[in-house]
Design a protein that fits this description.
Helix content is 40%, strand content 29%. It is α/β, with parallel strands linked by helices. The strands form 6 sheets. It has a 5-stranded mixed β-sheet with strand order 4-3-2-11-12, sandwiched between helices. It has a 5-stranded mixed β-sheet with strand order 15-14-13-19-20, with helices on both faces.
Length: 334
Amino acid sequence: MFKYGQDIGIDLGTATVIAYVKGKGIVLREPSVVAVDNNTGEVLAVGKEARRMLGRTPGNIVATRPLRDGVISSYTVTEKMLKYFINRVCGKFIFAPRIMICIPSKVTEVEKKAVIDAASQAGARKVYLIEEPIAAAIGAGIDISRPCGNMVVDIGGGTTDIAVISLGGSVVSSSLKVAGDKFDEAIVKYIKKKYNVIIGERTAEDLKINIGCVYPKIQDMEMDIRGRDLATGLPKTLTVHSSEMLEALIEPAMMVIDAVHGVLEKTPPELAADISDRGIYMTGGGCLIDGLDKLLQEKTGINVMIAQDAISCVALGTGKALDNLDVLDAKKRR
């Protein structure tokens, strides 16, 4: 079945790639992991299948995440991954699709060019970029075109993007490389230091999702995990409590809160007054860590709300921004 070139919005995340097709909504949600055969350079698996291979591959096969800290770390693998996802979304097309991709707010020109080149090589007719906090704000249902301040904190896998948005653009923004991955790393370090046991990234992520918290819980929860004992070199089972997760995760959580504080300090007073009335919106998978909203509210004294579909906010916002592609094209021609 041949299709005409579609308009696609892609949230090219460090942990997950979400694709939105105009008129259809979200059509693809896959982990941004690629398994490559080192000998031939051939892509063996992409997405969920490749994620299952993380940390479990023989020497000649490498399962990697081609995006680190919100930017492309392996150009060729990112291009292959994009090509695979675009083909899955579009099937066979007569005209190549126009694609809008999200990028962190503080990326360099070189990093922007890498994203545009990778998407063009993967089969895009035209590539547009949108900043993550702006896409997140649109996806959260905020009317960003009005002259009033809205603050968005988007915590993804690789980066946390904080922006004060007014009249369709960001007034003050900050991007820091502390997000979901750093939370996982903090858990791995904590378990190693306290129990002398090494656990993998996926186990750390399971701990974070199931019992992780950054604000004391009313009831202490526990979870059994398995890792490798560094003293004996043998597998070992541990029971970890949510109070320990609080100890492990509070440091990266405070780095995010300090960054929010820094952005608020630079915000013009009129917009700061708007934010204090309207509250802070949190989006992205990383904001779902238990108690992060309470901690931010306690430290800033401003009401904090988690967006309705926090994980998909950026992709939904990119999708809504697709409606303005013709306007963007007209501006360029002028």
